[in-house]
Amino acid sequence: MQKTLFEKIWEAHEVSSLSEVQSLLYIDRIFLHERTGAIALQSLAEKQRQVRQRAHAFCTMDHIVDTIPGRSAHTLMPSGREFIIATRSATQDADIRLFDISDPDQGIVHVLSPELGIALPGSTIICPDSHTCTLGGVGAVGWGVGSTEAEHALATSTLRVKRPRTMRINYTGEAPANLTAKDIILLTIRTLGTGGGSGFAIEFSGDAIRKLEVEARLTICNMSVELSAFTGIIEPDPQVMDWFSGRDFAPTGEQLDLAKSYWQSLKTDALATFDRETTIDLSQAKPQLSWGTSPEHCIDHDGKIPEPKDAPSKIAREAWRRALEYMELKPSTHLSNYPIQAAFIGSCTNSRLSDLRAAADYLQQTNNKVAKGVKAICVPGSGRVKRAAEAEGLDKIFIEAGFEWREPGCSLCFYAGGEDFGEGARIVSTTNRNFEGRQGIRAKTHLASPISVAASACAGFPIGGLL
Amino acid sequence: MRAFTQHNGVAAPLFRDNIDTDAIIPSREMKTVSKSGLAAGLFAPWRYLDAQTRTPNTDFVLNKPSYKSASILIAGHNFGCGSSREHAAWALAEFGFRAILAHSFGAIFKNNAIRNGILPIELKWPDLEAIAEWVAANPAENTISIDLDAQSVSAGPLGSTDFGIDPEAKLMLLHGLDEIGLTERFSAEIEAFEKKDMLVRPWNYLKAT
After folding, report:
1. Is A155 within 8 Å of B17 when comparing Cβ atoms?
2. Which of B111, B193, B203 sits opposite A258 (nearest CB)?
3. Of A147, A162, A177, which marks where a domain is finished?
């Protein structure tokens, strides 16, 4: 029987088949954060239940914690302290590992889990956070759940899961050298639509994907949820397997050899069939910028903002009209006509060392500085990313160009009532969601790659970064 | 969890695609470590003209007198996409919503809704549009009836439409079951799985310190 990679991992975790469509799946790792984790742990304790495998559960402070230097539990977000204190106490009571504010390894959950070897190829990992699908980048099956399901996984080491259908996206054509992983995934969402992956586990495949480094693969899989997919995954190759050597929670010595020989089997068989296959040609692809309020609202960096009359359906036409109104844009104009007030580099999509290097390279090679009136922020994804970046002098490049250099966390990927860029600010951002109000009240977000954000910060308007 | 068997109520059409959980409840409205106290933040960006003073936006459907008692919501494609925050389901439930009719749902939201006694119903496009139109003509009178056991939605003269639902989700909703309790019955299977898997993937099993 020929099987897809996803099917192999699913079957290896099946504790029991509950029905034709649903299985009780073993969950290898559970990662919590202070926004939604404390509620799950508290609710578990209220019902006198315990964390079943406490060595498999982890928690970090990333969502609410400030990223300004000198931060403490007294957050800019009103009542943020309550979440931090509750998380400390709940993780202490449950006796699970917490990456607290002062921990040198603290950072964004989906940056930490591969970086520390918590998510491994062929493993299942859940988190009450929708971007858990990021871990498909290292060949893990990760998906986001609510607090109640997180509680279920903590109590039983399992989840009752409906089996998704399988889909493969084949990328063809030689991708232009300046095309980043972020551009590839934005183009994919633009092509398939935000409902394009609904009900599917997606395998990203093709030469362009194989050529990507591990961190870039994490960026691709990170936005699977923006296609409404259950998850996204990329076949782990020797590059991925070697990447886990020396990572804190990854196997070592003989165990690593054993793991590697098992990881070799994590491949889609040559004759395996998918419920859906689609192809995206990258040979003509350009850097992408979002113009609207959904990640599918993207255009080529030099393209024109679309006309609602060209929308594919009546309801989409109305959505485009609303998006243009919210974003204060005129159809058939270029994004370069609209001044920005802010630029943001960070988030679980684009805050890893390679992302920071790409943006810093642009700043160094062009010697451009952040434009007047633009607040530019760079937030490394974890303590380790920050230290590695500083060891290379990236912090100095950012600071000299006019960026703020921050402490690790989710930061301004979303507005939680504390820090913001100012009401109605237009922001070019490496994050994953340009929803209405996501980054602040009436904030207007344009999604882009780290290079494009660096270029936009210096230009003072949204522009694709070409290096 | 609150059971769902049958329900009749006022339905509010919020006929848009991709209503994300940030719109259902923005992060800034999730102020306490609690599953309650969230109804006031429901649809805050659309419901209020001003985030601080909470001046109602009288154009927003839930602020119109005829929809004040709405317990059913009608939306387009991909309702509840985006963030996994269960606060979206908690806020909808606390406001009084028992069911949502949409073309499709964000997967995480759908699971969260079911676990909080909210019935997510997927309908085909023409049915959904017809129901929304009929409801809007006279919201107070043109109420919708839902029968979960029969898996049908009735809308007056439009008659009834069948909908699909996973058998387990149906069972959980009908009886208000605690899912963890159901799974605890599998504890022997879970232990047996671990014993077997430990031979195949020994590196997966970390030791507690």
Report:
1. no
2. B203
3. A162
Q: Based on the domain organization, do A303 and A449 belong to the same domain?
A: yes
pLDDT band at A392, cuts 50/70/90?
A: very high
Instruction: State the CATH number of the domain containing residue A44.
Output: 3.30.499.10
Domains and CATH numbers, chain B: 6-179 (3.20.19.10)
Domain count, chain A: 2
**ipTM rounded to 2 decimals:** 0.95
- Residue A392 distance to chain B (closest CA, Å): 33
Q: Tell me which chain B residues have a C-beta less than 8 angstroms from the C-beta of A248.
A: none
- B33:A198 CB<8 A: no
Q: Which domain holds residue A110?
A: 21-162
Q: Is residue A193 part of a domain?
A: no
- Closest chain A residue to B84, measured at CA: A130
Q: How far apart are CA A426 and CA A443, in angstroms?
A: 6
Residue A127 predicted with pLDDT over 90: yes
- Collapsed DSSP state (helix, strand, coil) of residue B174: helix
Give the SS3 label for residue A262: helix
pTM: 0.97
Interface of A with B in 238-297 (CB under 8 A): 249-251, 255-256, 258-259, 262, 294
Q: A202 burial class (0-12, 13-18, 19+ CB within 10 angstroms)? A: buried
Nearest 5°: CA angle at A14, between A12 and A15?
125
